[in-house]
Amino acid sequence: MKKNNKGFTLVELIVILVILAILSAILIPALTGYITEARAKKYLPNAKSCMDAAQAMFSQQYALNDNNISPNDPVVPGACEASSATDQNKNLDQDITNTDFAKEVLRLAGMPDGSPYMFMVAVGSNSTLGAPANSYSVSETDKYTVYYAFYMETATSKPWYYYNGAWTTTNPRATGTTNVFNRYNVVESGELSGKRLQYYLIACSDDVRTKYSGTVSKADFWNWLKTMK
Length: 229
Hints:
Elements: H1 10-42, H2 44-65, E1 80-81, E2 94-95, H3 100-108, E3 118-124, E4 146-152, E5 160-163, E6 166-168, E7 197-204, H4 206-211, H5 219-226
Parallel strand pairs: 2-7
Antiparallel strand pairs: 1-2, 3-4, 3-7, 4-5, 5-6
Helix pairs in contact: 2-3
């Protein structure tokens, strides 16, 4: 009897290769996205710990200040004003890295020696500059309440953002995003609409300062943050 040694035809091989290519095009991006998301979630507990610690410190500072902070003064002791009081578009955002306040935040978060690549929060603004008073609403307690946070564990890790009461990897300040913040840092959409925010930089890697011309006082720094995806 003759043996049947018939194999795949060229057409059949081409069909199989096409099917494999289609499956790869569908599955590989999904798998890559899953891996990226899983890696990002690994650092979420650290982000939450830092924000909780920052809120605890701001709450303590609220009790210590007892409503005695003058307009345009930072509510955090030792803050270094990074924006010009003569520039009406600025919001007096503050660099408080290496202050006792920032060090205590990191200690409470469980990372006194291994600071994250970058950690920044925003509370209700104590600035009266620029934006018309009737364009936003900020109470005394707002000035000590964390409404926004940016956390980046390493130079290559995906950032986490706390905004509108939830953590997300979607950057609300990303380039191309519209109607989120106006030039006076007044929120224009979402649950925080009408609230003016003021930023406090708590941890920042030296290479960020080197690459992006400093910190919250420089446009390069904010433009870099807007490129985060």
